[in-house]
Amino acid sequence: MPSNPVDEHGASHFVRPDFDRIRRKGVPEVILADRKTVEDSLAIARQFLEREGRAILSRVPEALEARLRQDFDGQASLEWYPGARAAVLRAPGQPRPDTGGRVGIVSAGTSDIPRAEEAALVCREMGCRVYTVYDVGVAGLHRLFDPLERLLNEDQVDVMIVAAGMDGALPSVVSGLVPVPVIGLPTSVGYGLGGGGVTALLSMLQTCAPGLSVVNIDNGIGAGATAGLIANRVAAARQAHT
Amino acid sequence: MPSNPVDEHGASHFVRPDFDRIRRKGVPEVILADRKTVEDSLAIARQFLEREGRAILSRVPEALEARLRQDFDGQASLEWYPGARAAVLRAPGQPRPDTGGRVGIVSAGTSDIPRAEEAALVCREMGCRVYTVYDVGVAGLHRLFDPLERLLNEDQVDVMIVAAGMDGALPSVVSGLVPVPVIGLPTSVGYGLGGGGVTALLSMLQTCAPGLSVVNIDNGIGAGATAGLIANRVAAARQAHT
Amino acid sequence: MPSNPVDEHGASHFVRPDFDRIRRKGVPEVILADRKTVEDSLAIARQFLEREGRAILSRVPEALEARLRQDFDGQASLEWYPGARAAVLRAPGQPRPDTGGRVGIVSAGTSDIPRAEEAALVCREMGCRVYTVYDVGVAGLHRLFDPLERLLNEDQVDVMIVAAGMDGALPSVVSGLVPVPVIGLPTSVGYGLGGGGVTALLSMLQTCAPGLSVVNIDNGIGAGATAGLIANRVAAARQAHT
Amino acid sequence: MPSNPVDEHGASHFVRPDFDRIRRKGVPEVILADRKTVEDSLAIARQFLEREGRAILSRVPEALEARLRQDFDGQASLEWYPGARAAVLRAPGQPRPDTGGRVGIVSAGTSDIPRAEEAALVCREMGCRVYTVYDVGVAGLHRLFDPLERLLNEDQVDVMIVAAGMDGALPSVVSGLVPVPVIGLPTSVGYGLGGGGVTALLSMLQTCAPGLSVVNIDNGIGAGATAGLIANRVAAARQAHT
Amino acid sequence: MPSNPVDEHGASHFVRPDFDRIRRKGVPEVILADRKTVEDSLAIARQFLEREGRAILSRVPEALEARLRQDFDGQASLEWYPGARAAVLRAPGQPRPDTGGRVGIVSAGTSDIPRAEEAALVCREMGCRVYTVYDVGVAGLHRLFDPLERLLNEDQVDVMIVAAGMDGALPSVVSGLVPVPVIGLPTSVGYGLGGGGVTALLSMLQTCAPGLSVVNIDNGIGAGATAGLIANRVAAARQAHT
Amino acid sequence: MPSNPVDEHGASHFVRPDFDRIRRKGVPEVILADRKTVEDSLAIARQFLEREGRAILSRVPEALEARLRQDFDGQASLEWYPGARAAVLRAPGQPRPDTGGRVGIVSAGTSDIPRAEEAALVCREMGCRVYTVYDVGVAGLHRLFDPLERLLNEDQVDVMIVAAGMDGALPSVVSGLVPVPVIGLPTSVGYGLGGGGVTALLSMLQTCAPGLSVVNIDNGIGAGATAGLIANRVAAARQAHT
Amino acid sequence: MPSNPVDEHGASHFVRPDFDRIRRKGVPEVILADRKTVEDSLAIARQFLEREGRAILSRVPEALEARLRQDFDGQASLEWYPGARAAVLRAPGQPRPDTGGRVGIVSAGTSDIPRAEEAALVCREMGCRVYTVYDVGVAGLHRLFDPLERLLNEDQVDVMIVAAGMDGALPSVVSGLVPVPVIGLPTSVGYGLGGGGVTALLSMLQTCAPGLSVVNIDNGIGAGATAGLIANRVAAARQAHT
Amino acid sequence: MPSNPVDEHGASHFVRPDFDRIRRKGVPEVILADRKTVEDSLAIARQFLEREGRAILSRVPEALEARLRQDFDGQASLEWYPGARAAVLRAPGQPRPDTGGRVGIVSAGTSDIPRAEEAALVCREMGCRVYTVYDVGVAGLHRLFDPLERLLNEDQVDVMIVAAGMDGALPSVVSGLVPVPVIGLPTSVGYGLGGGGVTALLSMLQTCAPGLSVVNIDNGIGAGATAGLIANRVAAARQAHT
Predict the structure, then answer these.
(1) Reduced to 3 DSSP states, what percent helix, strand and coil does chain B have, rounded to the nearest 5?
(2) Which residue in B has a C-alpha nearest to residue G211's C-alpha?
(3) What separation in angstroms does the CA of H154 have from each of A242, B106, G6, H148, H236?
(4) Is the CB of D189 inside 8 Å of chain A's CB atoms?
(5) Residues A8, A34: contact at Cβ < 8 Å?
(6) C window 32-71, beta carbon within 8 A of E
(7) G73: exposed, middle or buried (C-beta count within 10 Å: 0-12, 13-18, 19+)?
(8) What is the reported pLDDT for E110?
């Protein structure tokens, strides 16, 4: 972290980091490692591990992945999500939470999976059960109906995340077919005019299907947090009365 | 509706309207009256009233408002939302649904109220109880804390809609403070570069606050549908176990 | 047409209008009446009627419609397309062409019909048979399969035009299901960010479905011309060998 | 392909890839190799080769090119398109299809050739005969007329693809001169404001020439698929009656 | 002109208008009447008439046209350009300047004529001879060669202005064929994506033809001023030596 | 203000208006009258007049102007700013504040004066003395030096606001010449690409001149508030020590 | 610096650099080193050091940093700002100026610190005292009030700079709470639609809070110069009377 | 150049390159070397050298520069423009043309020099004499007047090119002061919103100064060609009469 030689008091007035967000909001902090140095990421991860018994890192560069595997060996278990290049460090004896919330995650193409996996990771660390269906293109809709039915009737999901790039049509199609709220997760897949996920996002904003809300391009973390909050509110209502 | 003299079969192949959407999705159809002729709007309203016992119209021009008051007098009750210029026609004996879902709606400025009211109307017609706090600007945050606390602790809302134009900062601020999912509803209030609601929408997409998802500019109907689906899923869980 | 007092030769050097385009290209000229005065539109229509035995006008203002009905009474038959507000004046004894080309036209919503009708009109005046299916939303895909099957198997269309606004998803969905070329026709239906047809156009450009090409927003005339050229090339091949 | 440790069923719900698209749509799947690892591309290519007797890869990185030449030596013939950096692997005894469709491809500048070649490749693998004219600039139109006449009268093409970057004027010019449908293929050639192919695409959308439809920037594959569908529909009509 | 009650000195510090620009720059001031009140326009016109013996007004509303015809009757001659809705008031005995500069003006379509006429007016009031060719579309290039040859060989223009809307291709085409500098004048003709003249301007900026420079959309006045400056510099060189 | 029939408590939860902003921030609230009904504007003005002894209204429609003159006759004095169409109602005996702050306001063209006047009005109501120079174009810089010198040396302004539309060059030029902070106020003057004030704003953001900060297009109120805060801070320092 | 072999006079007409800007404007020149070669930056730094007794460099690449430490060793002291990667070289005996101006700098997140530090550096070299509060997110507003109160009451700052990326909400929030002018400094932090600082800038332009003006994205130097000019004007008034 | 195995005639139909452009248009072809392989650039340069006695290359990578110096040693002289990284190869005995045209080139900052030099190179190879003034910022206008006067009165230039990035204000300022036509050359210098030359281009399009026309960002070649055509037309008129 940069020093700050220009302050009159001779010391930076850093406000303290926000460790209590998970208690206030129910959503864990995720360390975005791609804009930090390896050493900074390791230091912050260690802080979270000590205070919370868990540290979550996403967009982990290869050099950091190696250090995570090495530095925390014996001190914490490491769960690795290869698509999202994300990691969960968990202190010994620290269980993963289980709220009973149920989230379905659907992705349109192979390239959307990393972001779908980020969302899944966040939901899981918020205590939800996650059910996934990957690689369901709009250009062959007949392949969509069976998986959706299983998610609804068998897995009984409380909310769905649908990830899509390119024309971003899948979330609208799904939202037109299912009775649960749908979070559209546009991914930065696309090319030419409207590429990089812009068309995917715009399509979801212009949807005719009721009950679809969206997050920004590639914001798997945010989609997961929203879905987790919804599913956990439902789960809490279920449990409150059992 | 336009005739279609160019079809070889001598008749338009109009697919039938989607009357069963409310059963499939749980969200009622809303007739957007500002792009239709008065006669078309009246005809469609009549169809819905007959089949569903209810017709919902939004963005009602003055000429249509007069006709709604006159034509359905004695056949249906009329609820009028002056901010949104929206109307609900309800057949005699047809009760408003009551699911027990609880929705909070917050608006940043006076100009955002029409869209907030659209959202409230949809939630209510989906059976939810709606709790509103209007005109809470970011440029005076000290006035925000009390109303939020009341919505959370007293009204116990399951989800919040926060409507804002201009810089669209309020939904992020609220989402950073409350533990329920928040739907950001950008309104077309603003001027100059980034005006017309564009900045408000972008701000909500760029939020640092977890658990905020958004709909398109001025899409009060869509924000209401999403919030209603969430609240009703929670309410159903509550009721299933009582 | 404006005078031009500034030319040294004392007269405007107007190059002659392009009456022979239909012979060179096989596509009739359409007079866009909304940017012309009523008198100018009438004069040009008269010119075409005299030379070609037919004049086609689109986006006809009400004042011009009245004059068309009145001025050409007895001199030409008038076909009126109410959705597109388009007109065909045809000289007595002048038959509509018949090439045997077969075009299917699908529209997503009611608001897309005027542009779909423009396309239909052009195809028909190029000699094609036109088969239409209107108001097939993506938010209820189960209603799409039957009409498509009829267009393909019963009507045996050579090419399809699919008109859509909002998220513009329908052309991709259709193009993923049918074995004929599809022309995407985005319409200026939509609101907020990406509204006015922009998202619809971008979605069609970002399609994953092979065989979809597009025209600009609301360019029903151009979509019709392209589809007509394709269908007529096929029809010519059919006839050449019968 | 990424593992998916977060699914409750302990296994990814991958929907199966779309091998039957060529039978449903008549357009072969093309493997875009630039966003995949070499190993992934090789694995998918092997799958297609086994099932379809052919695998098509485009945007092949140098490392993959070397592996294609080496790994499939003796098992499949390799056709290499140097401009497009595309490859066709063909199983022994598997003939290239021949439908009798006839496609003309015109490019404005040298830089447009890679995309023109992608289109040519797709058309050819759909069974069409392809006739090309490359490097015909708008800034010297007198050089355009002879090649177009040869394409129309000698080669008798059913459809043309015209590739252009920069100001994208060539497709409009060509479409104003020829009686067959034209597919505009904008390429990412250009600089400054409106660069990267944006102006080329916009110009084609704003064309005054009837019968021009477009695909997205650099979408040679899509332009080829559309032209192939058109030409093959015409060819089928020709053959049906011979 | 608005009063300014808030200045401490009790009076507005208005800097004096720029009457000497024509002497410094050789380009006359043109009064844009569409953003002024009729009375303001008349007052400014009277000022110019008194000082310069001439006043030029463009984009003249109908009410102002009537007043110009009436108020200055007997005091100044009125030249009216109907396409541009522009007027020149000239004091008795005040001749139009004649420098010997030679300007060619070409327009692509009928809708571009008003802006072409604005340019012509400015050139003429700067003393140039103006030669015009109107309505030369790119979608029929064979009609272009004869008029260009006449402008070059017969009229011997020193510079050309080429006005075009839609895809804006004509200036590039012309600039590729003629040896004189060309000023591209994009007009606000066009629709859908890239409409309103944006594509026309971008096309001209992306031109491959050397020697084309551009002005902003609909800036006929500016195109005329630039062409007039060029032609007059050439004419001065011609005259200096005769 | 719209009623809100949908709240469960049977009453709108309107948070109270922000009357104490002037005490907290030193900037008076300005009632933007163009988006309100005449009756609403009058009601709010009356509230401010009662509590603060003053009400400021901007963008006043003609109908409201008439009512202001009529309704408050005898109860408050009315100051009218014709360029800005703004009004100050002042209760009898309520003096205009006088802080001793000194603000210079420069405008590039006549069309920028309304916004410059809005800024002047706010500064004056914050107690500043305002010195103005209007209609100083960049296209004749020699006319700029004298007025600037007078503002600096004679009027001794603490801060300058420079209003400009079109290319927005004036604020950069001024900021390169004067030693006081400059607020750039872009106005919605301009046309074609980058019109409506967008280029003016971008130019100010891209300035090479140090010490220039900007507000949004046409935000005269905001420019005045910023300049007033700066000038008043300086004036307070001056007075504190006298 | 490039040679210029094409000038007729055989020598470049380079106008001399602007060494006297600090005297004219009170803002020191900062050498942006990231677009220059190491040798060019060193040469210019040496020039400033000789003439002004100080050289300021920002965005210093690592190679240049090494050279600065090495080449000027013994000739000048080096102050290094690690966040901004900026350096101040100061000749022996040359004191840092001290005007008594007081500037507060607040940053929203860790990523905004480099730009905040650039601003701080400029203010300090203009003689101001700088007081900083870093890492104050909007998504936890309760942590904001204490630091602001200290800046206002204890440090008595004359002006504040607030740096923020993402949704850029913090400057509006701060400006709504404090009575001093605020300079919004948007940083290029953000992703997806509206990323790279665009939303942050737009939010600040759309602010509802009075007294907020802005500079372009990442323009820490410009924000510092503006704040320094304001603070120094106040300080001069304070000193003039003491 | 890529082979083209897909053409039915077994050979690519390459239209021949445009060697006669210099005779038709008077503007030499410039080989843009940054998008070509070193070998391709060398081959094309050799072709031009043989046919025209000269080859011009711009944006020359270092590897190509080395090869140019080595491969043509003894066969052609090499003139190297270090700012533009451009080269002119000239066959022995081939003189540089001399038309007597006179071009002034002004640049705003050091970063604009490479593009200014490209323009100078083209003008010179078209036979013009070029007079340059570099590094004249708008943020210090007092330094501008002397150089302009020398260009006009002493060097008697027929046309000026003014290169500027950032806010692009210099061309407008110059065009408001000089009586010759001005070509605005925006450069890709700038940052944040409107960066990369976009604001510079827009500013020039929005200019209030008459007689300014523009080319696209960084198009030094095009600016030079336009200025060269103008100056040569003037020079020809001068010579015709001597």
Answers:
(1) 40, 20, 40
(2) B139
(3) 96, 70, 17, 10, 20
(4) no
(5) no
(6) 35
(7) exposed
(8) 86
Q: Whole-angstrom Cα distance, residue D110 to residue A157?
A: 54
Mean of the per-residue pLDDT values of chain E? 89
F185 contacts F220 by C-beta, under 8 angstroms: yes
The SS3 of residue D25 is helix
Residue F115 near chain E (CB below 8 Å): no
Q: How far apart are the first and last CA of chain C?
A: 49
Region label for G139, one of left (φ > 0), alpha (ψ between -120 and 50) or beta (otherwise):
alpha
**Taken in order A191, A197, A198, A204, is the CA torsion positive or negative?**
positive
Q: How far apart are CA C221 and CA H166, in angstroms?
A: 43
Residue E186 has which token pair? Answer: 């994009």
State the average pLDDT for chain B: 89
Pick from A1, A3, A6 the residue to mutate for testing the G interface (most G CBs within 10 Å). A6
Give the separation between CA G93 and CA B71, rounded to whole angstroms: 91
The enclosing H or E element of F224 equals helix F220-240
Coil, helix or strand for G238? helix
What is the C-alpha separation between D144 and D170, in angstroms, rounded?
Answer: 10
Contact E36, E64 (CB under 8 A): no
pLDDT digits (tens, 9 = 90+) for D90-101: 999 999 999 999
**Which pLDDT score, from 0 to 100, does residue E77 have?**
96
Task: Tell me whether residues F129 and E21 touch, CB distance under 8 A.
Answer: no
Q: Which two tokens stand for residue G52?
A: 């002004």
H218/D130 touch (CB, cutoff 8 Å), yes or no: no
How do B86-90 and B54-58 pair as beta strands? antiparallel
Query: What letter does residue A128 receive in the DSSP assignment?
Result: -
Integer Cα distance of B81 and H4 in angstroms: 67
**Among the ranges given (C51-65, C162-176, D10-24, F143-157), the one the predictor scored with the smallest mean pLDDT:** D10-24
Tens-place pLDDT, residues B137-153: 655 666 788 899 999 99
Could you give the ipTM of this predicted complex?
0.91
- Residues in chain B with CB shorter than 8 Å from the CB of G142 are 177
CA-based nearest distance A150→chain G, Å = 32
Q: Which residues of C touch A175 (CB under 8 A)?
A: 139
Show residues of chain A in contact with C177, CB under 8 Å.
141
Q: What stretch of H or E contains B121?
A: helix B113-125
Q: Is D208 on the interface with C (CB under 8 A)?
A: no
Contacts of D190 (CB under 8 A, 6+ apart): D165, D166, D196, D197, D198, D199, D200, E206
In chain B, beta strands by DSSP E:
31-32, 54-58, 77-81, 86-90, 102-107, 129-133, 159-164, 182-186, 212-214
- Answer whether E224's CB lies under 8 Å from E121's CB: yes
Alpha helices (H) along chain G: 21-25, 38-52, 62-71, 113-125, 145-149, 170-175, 198-205, 220-240
Judged by CB atoms closer than 8 Å, whether chains meet at G3 and H83 is answered as: yes
Find, among G99, G26, G211, G31, the residue nearest to F178 by Cα: G26
H197 contacts in chain D (CB < 8 Å): 192-193
Q: Are strands G86-90 and G77-81 parallel, antiparallel or unpaired?
A: antiparallel
Q: Containing H/E element for C88?
A: strand C86-90
Interface of H with F in 151-170 (CB under 8 A): 166-169
| Burial (CB count <10 Å: 0-12, 13-18, 19+), residue G153 | exposed
Nearest CA among C124, C192, C119, C179 for reference residue C149 = C179
Q: Which residue has the higher pLDDT, C140 or A222?
A: A222
Contact between chains at G203 and B203 (C-beta distance less than 8 A): yes
How many angstroms separate the CA atoms of D76 and D83, rounded? 22
Residue G194 phi/psi, 5-degree rounding, is 80, 15
**Is E215's CB within 8 Å of H234's CB?**
no
